[in-house]
Amino acid sequence: MNDDVISRNELREKAMECGKLAQQDPRLLVVGLGYVVNAPTVYQWISVRDGLPETDGNYLVAYTLGIDQYWMEVSGFCKNGKDVCEYGLAGAKNTFYGYDDEYGYYPINYVAHWMPLPEPPKEDAE
Length: 126
Known about the structure:
Elements: H1 8-24, H2 27-36, E1 46-47, E2 57-66, E3 69-80, E4 93-100, E5 104-107, E6 111-116
Antiparallel strand pairs: 1-6, 2-3, 2-6, 3-4, 4-5
Helix pairs in contact: 1-2
């Protein structure tokens, strides 16, 4: 067996280790999973103080829930709120946003860090 290939059981064990580490520090989960799947590109968190995305799209964001606590999710980003929804983000500029089936689009004002999403997996040609 190739040294770079691991079994499902080994993958499951490594994912569980990542989950345990994430309980101590949620930021480690992304790095841990990147290690498990041997992602070729490792993105770094970018503080919103250092800059915002240059293009509209979806990004992985981390926002604060209190002292040293972060929640991570995929969020949209738009330079001009009118481009997303005329009402929910009207007048908003350079805004991360979410969507709720009941309430529609809403700004997420407490994003602390962001990073680009990785490329989706490619199908193996057989």
